[in-house]
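Running low. Invent one:
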Amino acid sequence: MDMIAQNPYYLVSLIAGIAAVGFIVAAIVFLVKERTGKKGTEQKSRKDTDKMVKEKKFVFRRKKKEEAAELDEPQKTFLHPAANRRLRVGVGAASELDCEAYKQRIIEAYQQCTGLKDTIWLLQETWQGGWQENIDRAKQYLTQSRYKDVETALDYLLEGMEADKLKQDLIQMEVVRYRRIETKR
C-alpha cells in the first residue's frame, strides 16, 4: 500500500479502476430496472397489477369480438383494389354493355391525353355512368398516395370487371410514352 501512495500513477490507476467498476455496476442496475419495468424504488401493488391485466384482457376480448363482427359482413377495404374485386364482381355487377362502353371510353380518353393521370381527369369530367366511384378512387390514389404507380391506379380504375388485357395494353402504352419522352430530351 505504501508503494501505491508514493507513486501517483498507481494512485490514479486505482481511482480510475474504482470509478469504472462503479459505472459498470450503475449501468447494470439501470438495465435491470428498465427490463423489469420498475422505475426507481416505486413498486406497484399486486392489486393494481391485477387490475391492469384485467383491463387488457377486456380490451383484447372486445377487439376480438369487433374483428369477428367485421368478418361476418363484407366491408370495403381501401388497401388494394384486388381485395375488393371478389366483393364487387358478384354483387350488383354492371352489365356487359356498360363494361364494354366504359372500357372503350377509357381507351379513347387515353388516346386523347398525354398519360394515365390526364386520362383519369378527363374521364372524371366526361364520364356519366356507373363507374364513377372507380374513377374517383383512381384519382384519389394518384393525388394522395405516396407511390402513384400506374398498375395500382389501373387496378382502381378497372376494379369490378375482367379487364386484364386492357390493363396490360394500357401499361405497355404508358411505358412507350414514357420512353419516347425520355429519348426526345
DSSP finds nine helices and no strands in the chain. The radius of gyration is 33 Å. The chain has three domains: 1-41, 43-73, 81-184.
